[in-house]
Design a protein that fits this description.
The complex is a heterodimer of chains A (287) and B (356).
Chain A lengths: L1 H16 L12 E4 L1 H9 L6 E4 L23 H6 L4 E5 L5 H9 L4 E4 L5 H14 L7 H18 L7 E9 L2 E5 L4 H8 L3 E2 L7 E4 L1 H7 L3 E5 L5 H12 L2 H4 L2 H4 L3 E4 L1 H5 L5 H13 L3
Parallel strand pairs in A: 1-2, 1-3, 3-4, 5-7, 5-9, 9-10
Antiparallel strand pairs in A: 5-6, 6-8
Helix pairs in contact in A: 5-6, 6-13
Chain B lengths: L8 H4 L3 H24 L7 H9 L6 H36 L11 H15 L5 H7 L3 H21 E2 L2 E2 L1 H25 L2 H12 L7 H17 L4 H7 L3 H6 L4 H23 L5 H13 L3 H25 L8 H19 L1 H5 L1
Antiparallel strand pairs in B: 1-2
Helix pairs in contact in B: 2-15, 4-10, 4-13, 4-14, 4-15, 5-7, 5-8, 5-9, 5-13, 7-8, 7-13, 10-13, 11-15, 14-15, 15-16
The chains are: A alpha/beta (287), B mainly alpha (356).
């Protein structure tokens, strides 16, 4: 709700300003809020103008060396001002709204980049960042790369293979499976990769009962990578298989458990085409 | 913690003068902490320099002005009021329930506020757009305040029969009401998406980061009024320490004291929680510390609790906004992290006094 309220507030404010991202070619101290915005700035080759980021901006690795102004929905106004930004580029949903209001009062341009989870939305996102940075022409190359990946993807998806059912497991808290339903980033990327979300009729990330897992009957289980090495993977897979309802699914029988980096998989930035392609290959066993 | 017993101990142990001089020192402490708080922050803006420029009519950079007057000043005042409000509410509740562990939570105020906040965060989007637009981002504080008063009113209604409020009924019914509120909160939380869950978590950890003039002007007068009225309770609460019957015999209008205590607590805590989320521990530890120092006499305890509570919260807030700058640690974590061990240390080193 806060999101909707803040959107309403942001809408009212932005109507007063303008609907389109305004260009700020002179901005040399850019603060990026939101992992995908940071990624896009790097993809545009504009990282030299980036001076700080939020906690969700963990890619590329260099970005992590920048000062961290905190979680994007719990920003501190003085903390943000202390890095002396002359432009703030943010994903939708940054807050709290009081902080955003103070930042505007301080006269710092604040551009909100619209979110998007399909080809059009992602293109618009990259273009909006390029526009705001005053380098619209720089968007061409990452957009082309994204399009190429998505084209490759639709060629692969159009291959006529029967659609597989994928269940995204967010966590295994206390032996309970927290899975992705509709309206989640995981649902969007699964569909983008040409598969079907095995969990239907559920909104958001919800714990599933054993019966619901059996009914979902996923062909593949998708999870986020936590640790970097294989032993983490093995341990997590073991924990997953220890749940009888999971062990009885087709995915468990075939050993079809996929793990991908969270931001790569769910970030919806310039790498999403590649991520969806990787996911497609992992689900359908290579192109 | 009996204030008076048959052997006349109280005269020998009269610590009223201590309370009076302590009030002076606590006031000085608060002034010092407030100055420090105004001068410190992530941005390194120097408060004395900006104020000097301001008084001498020099040009002030826009950012400096915003940092000092729109960020630090409302936050300073909010922190002072919230800290004082929570500490005084704690002291009043402990007096009313004659129990050192009592806190405003017993009135259902905290549970009600959190239900209000949860409902606003998760379900607020379902409200008609006209209401949403009117409430804007003040929906959560408004709902939290309404929730705290609603819960308190229900509990007061249940515990009051024929014009008499039973504290024991209130205590027990409070547990039942809190359980019911927790169940409804749980139902709503189940509906929440992951972003709303993060919002809820941050809300429950408390923060003064959202302090603004608008919020201060809305909630400040409520807290301030409760604080100003609270010393009038001192005599009544002292009398209640004897037990309700004895208090009535020494001429205390018990029912009036109870009602006033409940209203003051609900006003101060409800408004504090509404603008700063859940900040624990201040309400318990501050009155305790002062009781160890100056005894249980409410005449100075209430005032001193307000002063010390304000200082404690300002210090905690300073830590919260500078320790991981430019990011910010929720203040509830700090109050618990610093306060818990400190409180334990005070308790253990005064063990004999507590047992005696």
């Amino acid at each position: 709700m806060i999101r909707r309220v803040s959107q309403a507030a942001a809408l009212a404010l932005s109507l007063a300003l303008s609907a389109q991202a305004e260009p700020h070619p002179d901005a040399q101290r850019v603060l990026a809020i939101g992992g995908s915005v940071t990624e896009i700035i790097y993809a545009l080759g504009q990282q030299d103008r980036l001076i700080a980021r939020d906690t969700t901006s963990s890619f590329p690795a260099e970005a992590q060396e920048l000062p961290d102004v905190g979680y994007m929905r719990a920003l501190s106004s003085e903390g943000v001002l202390s890095v002396k930004p002359d432009l703030i580029l943010s994903e939708e949903g940054a807050g709290p709204p009081e902080t955003i209001a103070v930042l505007k009062e301080a006269g710092i341009p604040f551009e909100t980049i619209p979110s998007g989870t399909d080809a059009e939305g992602l293109t618009a996102k990259i273009e909006a960042v390029a526009e705001a940075l005053g380098v619209p022409e720089a968007a061409a190359s990452p957009v082309a790369a994204l399009k190429a990946d998505l084209d490759k993807l639709s060629a692969a998806v159009g291959g006529g293979a029967p659609s597989k059912r994928v269940m995204f497991v967010l966590s295994l808290q206390g032996g309970r499976v927290m899975a992705a339903g509709q309206g989640t980033e995981a649902d969007a990327i699964i569909r983008l990769a040409g598969a079907e979300n095995a969990v239907q009729g559920v909104d958001g990330y919800k714990p599933l009962t054993d019966e619901a897992i059996t009914a979902a009957a996923p062909d593949t289980i998708l999870m986020m990578k936590r640790g970097a090495n294989d032993s983490d993977h093995a341990a997590a897979t073991e924990a997953l298989m220890a749940i009888p309802a999971v062990a009885a699914t087709p995915a468990a029988r075939n050993g079809a458990v996929i793990r991908m980096d969270g931001l790569y998989l769910l970030g919806f930035g310039p790498r999403t085409g590649q991520a969806a392609l990787d996911l497609h290959d992992a689900i359908y066993g290579g192109a | 913690m009996v204030a008076l017993d048959a052997s006349g101990e109280r005269l020998a142990g009269d610590r009223r003068h201590l309370g009076r001089s302590l009030a002076f020192w606590l006031f000085a402490l608060l002034a010092a902490v407030a100055m420090l708080s105004l001068g410190h922050g992530a941005s390194g803006v120097s408060a004395p320099q900006v104020l000097l420029d301001w008084f001498t009519g020099h040009e002030i950079a826009r950012t400096d002005r915003v940092v000092l007057f729109d960020i630090r000043l409302p936050r300073l005042l909010t922190g002072m009021l919230v800290g004082a409000g929570l500490a005084v509410s704690g002291a009043v509740m402990q007096g009313l329930f004659r129990n050192p562990l009592a806190d405003p939570g017993l009135l259902g105020v905290s549970a009600g506020a959190s239900l209000g906040a949860i409902a606003a965060i998760v379900l607020g989007g379902l409200l008609p757009p006209a209401i949403l637009a009117a409430a804007g981002w003040h929906l959560v504080p408004l709902a939290a305040f309404a929730g705290s008063w609603l819960a308190m009113a229900v509990l007061y209604g249940i515990a009051t029969q024929q014009g008499k409020t039973s504290v024991a009924t209130m205590l027990l019914a409070g547990i039942a009401i809190a359980a019911m509120i927790a169940a409804v909160s749980g139902l709503i939380i189940y509906r929440a998406d992951d972003q709303q869950l993060r919002d809820l978590t941050f809300w429950s950890l408390g923060s003064l980061a959202g302090a603004s003039w608008v919020k201060l002007l809305a909630a400040g007068p409520v807290i301030a009024a409760a604080l100003v009225v609270s010393p009038l309770l001192a005599r009544g609460l002292n009398g209640l320490a004897l037990g309700e019957a004895a208090a009535a015999h020494v001429g205390i209008r018990v029912q009036r004291v109870k009602t006033a205590a409940i209203l003051i607590t609900a006003a101060a805590t409800g408004a504090s929680v509404a603008i700063s989320g859940g900040i624990g521990f201040v309400g318990i530890v501050v009155p305790h510390l002062l009781r160890l120092l100056t005894g249980p006499d409410h005449r100075w305890l209430l005032v001193n609790s307000g002063l010390l509570g304000a200082s404690v919260l300002l210090v905690a807030d300073m830590v919260s906004r500078t320790i991981i700058a430019p990011a910010e640690l929720p203040i509830g974590i700090i109050t618990a992290m610093i306060g818990g061990p400190f409180f334990l240390w005070v308790l253990l080193s005064n063990r004999r006094m507590l047992d005696g």
